[in-house]
Input
Amino acid sequence: MNTPSQYADSANLDARIELHRRYSLNPQTWFDWLFDRLVIPDTSHILELGCGTGELWRVNEGRIPRGWRMTLTDASEGMLATASRNLADLHEPFAFIPVDAVAIPFPDHTFDAVIANHMLYHVPERQCAIAEIRRVLRPGGVLFASTTGAGHLQELQDALDAIGAGHALALPEPSFTLETGRAQLGEWFPEIRLERYPDALLITKAEPLVAYVRSLLNPHQPNEAALQRFESWARSEIESEGRIRITKDSGVFIAS
Ligand SMILES: C[S@@+](CC[C@H](N)C(=O)[O-])C[C@H]1O[C@@H](n2cnc3c(N)ncnc32)[C@H](O)[C@@H]1O
Output
């Protein structure tokens, strides 16, 4: 199945979620904020593509309407196994199925809503995936597609560039962003609204930031020398300034 190797299991995603959990300034977490945006009828069948570790549902345990039925999918079986373990105690109607977003194995008009949370930028054949989402949505159904924008983690990339590690540790440039997503969804969804989530990271320890940058490296060619340079920079910055501030720029397209 078509999944980036960084997601063979949940370790890389866990490192990223952990950094956001510990150091985000917005008291409302991303997953809580996103859940607020899921305006979906009380009786609905929901498909999540690229569900990762199932964090959206774990964080919002207790807020899930009784009439919702959730089909959680991911192209990575390792990720899906973690999601299934993480949600085992929730006693909600979850199904876990390996699915590549470019070939969704469900009939036309199956779902009332589709959630693609920070995942469409990983799909090279994105137009194919968006067409598939449209196909499996019922008439009047809604797609929630979240992603990041141009300012996301800008100070982190600037720091990597300044210490000469920008090439070795370059942050990925998403191909589906808050700036470019509307045009990509527009072919299939006539109505699109964008909501932005205001936040930043105020980081006071070097280790989780280094783990975050490590999680983005090619596991087959990790550039340890560049990573060590970055770690020294992060430690001295925190020692002298007490913290490192990094902008977050994320949001969700609500398309129908
Ligand atoms: C950045 S993670 C986001 C996970 C989760 N939605 C979250 O926000 O915590 C991206 C997820 O998309 C999955 N993924 C990547 N390409 C995919 C594809 N073509 N079809 C389905 N899932 C895919 C990855 O395995 C990974 O779990």
Q: What stands out?
A: The chain has a mean pLDDT of 93.
